[in-house]
């Protein structure tokens, strides 16, 4: 910058009123009019020159600072753009200029739209990561049985599509596992409902004991009820119900069997048996057979059990009558087979025990059934011999009749029925001629 003294112009030259030269000229006119000292004039002019230099220096410094800030902003924008490309896993961006040209502001303005676009992409990608990772954490917590969810932390240095696909694959795997677990829970719930229905239990109470949320419907939000612990407890509950069902079925079958035996023993009328007909059919159902609602309730079992107890008491009161009936059956078998009465002494002892009341009823009837079985077995072994004996005795009867017929002098007379006697006499002679053979067979058979 030149000295203020050099800005003077020839007198009479027109100067703009706003210029420094005009103001300096006006200042000199004032000094001339006032009579300002020359040294003072030079001092003031030097001060003015220094002040002007300071103003220019401030302006230069300000401009330089702006240039530095533009360089820094441009460098930061380029660095941020590069980091965004790396974090999003992209190699390039079509909107970014290949070569930076022009002033700093032009260069900054040229990269700003591409940078803003990349920032928007990052925000959208980050939102996707947060949604996927939040869902992963929620499902994983449900499977693990954890309460509450922590805030998701996303690694913003790797927001690539490859990483996002990895999280999405993990999410799909967890969703499939959750779906499988929910299906398993529903299967257990169906089994529990079926068992409870058959045994007359309240399935809601059973499920509530496992976990209260199991009472939610299938369309409601399912949380904290698909963990390994819940599945294990459901499985244990199902196994317990299955065992209880089998125990009740077995108990009912034994009771029905005992009831049927008592009916047969006591010759119970069909009218008295009819109310238990359906229960008897249920008891005969196979293990894998379908049972209707209420088939194995405690009330049903207690009803049959009470009837068995009642009939047992009735059987005890009729034990003497039953014993005599079975003894008569043994007598009849022996009489038909022409056998001596077996076990006479034993049956007399049993009768004495009955009279004294010191006997186990079931053992007594079992013993009598064994006697009847042995008597029938003995009678069966004698059947062939007895048939031959009966034939031989019948032949002897025919022989006696034939002798009496032969002594009858009127056997050839013409009378009513004479021809029938003649035919019988012919048959009798044939039978009598076989008597030696029948007798020999009978002897050999014995």
Automatic annotation (TrEMBL):
It holds the Pfam family MAP65_ASE1. The keyword Coiled coil applies. One of its GO terms (cellular component) is microtubule. The keyword Coiled coil applies. InterPro entries: MAP65_Ase1_PRC1. This is 65-kDa microtubule-associated protein 8. It comes from Urochloa decumbens. Residues 38-65, 157-184, 231-262 form a coiled coil. Belongs to the MAP65/ASE1 family. Signal peptide: none annotated. It comes from the Eukaryota. Transmembrane segments: none annotated. Keywords: Coiled coil, Microtubule.
